[in-house]
Amino acid sequence: MIMPWKNEPNILSMLLAFGMTLLGA
């Protein structure tokens, strides 16, 4: 899997939000 978030920072934000949701933030 390549790193698409290099050109799309939105994916990074979504990943961060997803992780926080898993933590129950």
Can you give a write-up of this model?
This is Holin. It comes from Serratia marcescens. It is a single chain. The protein is mainly alpha-helical and 25 residues long. Helices cover 60% and strands 0% of the residues. It has 1 helix and no strands. The longest helix is centred in the middle third of the chain and has 15 residues, at 9-23. The mean pLDDT is 76.
Give short descriptive properties of this protein.
mainly alpha, Holin, elongated, 25 residues, single chain
Shape descriptor reads: elongated
**Helix content bin:** 55-70%
Rg computed from alpha carbons, rounded to a whole number of angstroms: 10 Å
Largest sheet: none
Number of helices: 1
Average pLDDT reading = 76
Strand content is under 5%
Structural class, by secondary structure, is mainly alpha
Low-confidence stretches: none
Number of strands: 0
Order of helices and strands: H
User: What is the terminal-to-terminal distance?
Assistant: 27 Å
